[in-house]
Amino acid sequence: MVYGQILHRHSPDDLFINVNVGGFKQRMEHNILKRFPQTRLGRLLCCSSKEAILELCDDFSPSEMEYYFDRNPCFFSYVLNFYLTGKIHLVDGLCVVSFFQEIEYWGIKERHLDFCCSNKFYELMFAEDKCWDQRSDELQLHSSDSSVEELSALEEDIEMFEGSWCADVRRNIWIRLENPGYSTSAKVMAVASLTVVIVSIVAMCVHSMPDFHQVDVNEKEIENPVLHFFESLCVLCFSAEFILRLAVAPSARKFLCSPLNIIDLMSIMPFYVTLVCDIMDEGENTDLENVGKVVQILRLMRVFRILKLARHSPGLRSLGATLRHSSREVGQLVLFLSVGISMFSVLIYFVEKESPESELQTIPIGWWWATISMTTVGYGDTVPITLAGKLIGTLCIICGLLIVALPITNIFNKFSKFYQRQRHISEEAITEPSPASTGVSYPNA
User: Fold this and answer.
1) What would the pLDDT profile of 140-174 be if each residue is shown by its tens digit?
2) Upper half-sphere CA count for residue 211 (Cβ side, 13 Å)
3) DSSP run (H or E) holding 215
4) Considering only CA atoms, which of 76, 14, 74, 70 is closest in space to residue 45?
5) Complete edge-to-edge strand list for the sheet that includes strand 59-61
6) What are the Cα distances from residue 261, in Å, to 243, 310, 314?
7) Which residues contact residue 121 at a Cβ distance below 8 angstroms, ignoring those fewer than 6 apart?
8) In this predicted structure, what is the pLDDT of residue 396?
9) Residue 6 pLDDT
């Protein structure tokens, strides 16, 4: 029973409701509204309290039994026509997104669009979605501009040197460290830094080879002196570069929050922590029996030095930006693979469990098989034996190809855009900043 019917139970006006939409007043019959009970006005007939009514309209006058809506009065005439004819038509001059929002507010579904307007509506919505995707990509690119330009464009950072201690000296060093194309000395510093990174990576790879392992008189493995020398030299160079960058940085806080500088710090710290642990382990203290394991873990962290190449590679920086802005596509890829792996692991288990020669005797082993099959890796260590298992394996591989291929296109397109923009920024950074653009005069390189 309507809230108004509680006050005027026997009045003829109970067969009508008064609607006021932005000043446009209309008297509507209950029978017409009951034809569409899921719409906003149809739901008003089922309200039994004023609180319920105010959830559906902006205001309500019990004395006049008038419902107020703060909406577009021109569009409401199309809503009235909908209640009379059962069809809604597009509004000339109204954005398709605004039209969709209006019909959604009044509880009118897209299926109520008349045939003459439905095709045009879907065409406009498709075009709007395409424009929205383009604007979304542009916004993502622009949102990454700040992080990308911090690596190559120095205009904003240079302005921060004004009024600080040793501003001219720090500015000149900072420009040469951050912009390899600024001068010959800057190129030399960049090449030297890249060389040290490559030497460190090579030394780390050589250290894993058995031919370069050495032991002491107690058959305890020790560091190769030559490799240890190169290791220490590279870390000292990394440390000196990091400290120099931190000392001349226009903002220490901004410097320490930069992803590339965090990588630099993570590639340096394991060496010093390992050195401290080795010194403490020499005392043969029983409380430090796990120091050796800690040292091994810290030595594994030297792999972060490979990421230092991102400072000199636009491609690696573009890859990082792509992954950061493709979290939705990557999440969908992981979700699709997880569903497929779970399904095929159960299927292969039920068809292979009766075969004693098959290794797929448990569902967890089926997870491993489904993972390497759907990702088309195919190690061949675990394979189905039965005919049904081979058919399921074939279907698993085909589904894996399709699932992996679905989000790859969007990820690749984003990578191409980021890479082109990074190349453009890198080319602009090669040209020497002019005094007019920075407001600062530079000494000759």
Assistant:
1) 545 444 444 444 445 566 666 666 677 788 888 88
2) 2
3) strand 214-215
4) 14
5) 24-29, 16-21, 66-69, 59-61
6) 11, 11, 16
7) 90, 96, 99, 110, 113
8) 92
9) 40
The dihedral through the CA atoms of 403, 405, 409, 415 has a sign that is positive
Higher pLDDT, residue 311 or 402: 402
Q: What is the 3-state secondary structure (H, E, C) of 166-202?
A: CHHHHHHHHHHHHCCCCCHHHHHHHHHHHHHHHHHHH
- What are the backbone angles phi and psi of residue 222, rounded to the nearest 5°? -125, 170
Q: What are phi and psi of 88, to 5 degrees?
A: -115, 145
* CB contact set of 175 (below 8 Å; sequence gap of 6+): 154, 158, 182, 186, 433, 442
- pLDDT, residue 436, reads 37
> CA gyration radius for the chain?
35
pLDDT at 370: 92
Q: Calculate the CA 226 to chain-centre distance.
A: 43
Cα–Cα nearest to 79, from 29, 41, 116: 41
**Cβ atoms 413, 134 nearer than 8 A:** no
pLDDT of residue 119: 78
